[in-house]
């Protein structure tokens, strides 16, 4: 199915399949299996071995990497993460995405924009994807704390990594991977200068975290607080479109 074109007129074929396990997680799963088998076979400690074996399947599930069908409309900005929308606020983008970094490529313009925060629990897919296609202009890693990623101040105090993408028309979209209470490493898949397609995998955060995306001026989100997003599939906004969207929890 990878690379196949599907549409809303019935073109293409789809079916359920076991998701792949990202290479970044295979070593952790294999270590967990090896430890559990040691307790089961070498020590015959079933009370410890069986829970560890169950945990090893959980580790593999955490690093699952399913295929996604990425909407290709020019105006569509796609969700960079699986999870729940926990914050939608008007903020100034991080300085790291605005200031002159000496690369010769300007950052985001000054002024407030809408920030959409997506919280990922340990049960969500943790592969992050780019919301637009273009050229990676910045990848800025900042060490920090590991407080609850659902808190607003986590955007400024937690370990985080900013990524700035510039489209071919010059529009720039920035987003931030933020570590949480359990997360202890942000793993990038891209570097400045790389060309990326919309919905391409750009990194992961191990074991629970959050992703913030900064929408361009004049653009309102098409998602609501409490809504679940799917990385690479959910249209989080359409460039230049504004308007209130209301939902009812039920």
UniProtKB/TrEMBL annotation:
Pfam families: PS_Dcarbxylase. It comes from the Bacteria. It is found in: Cell membrane. Its cofactor is pyruvate. Is synthesized initially as an inactive proenzyme. Formation of the active enzyme involves a self-maturation process in which the active site pyruvoyl group is generated from an internal serine residue via an autocatalytic post-translational modification. Two non-identical subunits are generated from the proenzyme in this reaction, and the pyruvate is formed at the N-terminus of the alpha chain, which is derived from the carboxyl end of the proenzyme. InterPro entries: PS_Dcarbxylase, PSD-A. Pathway: Phospholipid metabolism; phosphatidylethanolamine biosynthesis; phosphatidylethanolamine from CDP-diacylglycerol: step 2/2. It is a peripheral membrane protein. Keywords: Cell membrane, Decarboxylase, Lipid biosynthesis, Lipid metabolism, Lyase, Membrane, Phospholipid biosynthesis, Phospholipid metabolism, Pyruvate, Transmembrane, Transmembrane helix, Zymogen. Catalyzes the formation of phosphatidylethanolamine (PtdEtn) from phosphatidylserine (PtdSer). This is Phosphatidylserine decarboxylase proenzyme. It comes from Erythrobacter ramosus. The gene is psd.
């Amino acid at each position: 199915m990878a690379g196949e074109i599907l549409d809303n007129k019935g073109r293409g074929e789809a079916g359920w399949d076991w998701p792949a396990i990202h290479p970044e997680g295979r070593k952790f799963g294999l270590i967990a299996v090896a430890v559990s088998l040691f307790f089961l076979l070498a020590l015959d400690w079933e009370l410890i071995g069986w829970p560890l074996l169950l945990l090893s399947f959980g580790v593999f599930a955490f690093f699952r990497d399913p295929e996604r069908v990425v909407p290709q409309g020019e105006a569509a900005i796609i969700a960079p993460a699986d999870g729940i929308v926990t914050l939608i606020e008007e903020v100034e983008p991080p300085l790291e995405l605005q200031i002159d970094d000496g690369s010769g490529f300007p950052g985001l313009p000054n002024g407030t924009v809408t920030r959409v925060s997506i919280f990922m629990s340990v049960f969500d897919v943790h592969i992050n994807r780019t919301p637009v296609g273009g050229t990676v202009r910045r990848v800025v890693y900042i060490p920090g704390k590991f407080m609850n990623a659902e808190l607003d101040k986590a955007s400024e105090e937690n370990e985080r990594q900013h990524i700035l993408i510039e489209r071919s028309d010059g529009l720039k979209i920035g987003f931030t991977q933020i570590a949480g209470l359990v997360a202890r490493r942000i793993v990038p898949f891209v570097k400045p200068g790389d060309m990326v397609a919309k919905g391409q995998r750009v990194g992961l955060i191990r074991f629970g975290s959050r992703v913030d995306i900064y929408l361009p001026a004049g653009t309102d989100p098409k998602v609501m607080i409490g809504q679940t997003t799917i990385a690479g599939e959910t249209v989080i906004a359409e460039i230049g479109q504004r308007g209130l969207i209301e939902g009812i929890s039920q």
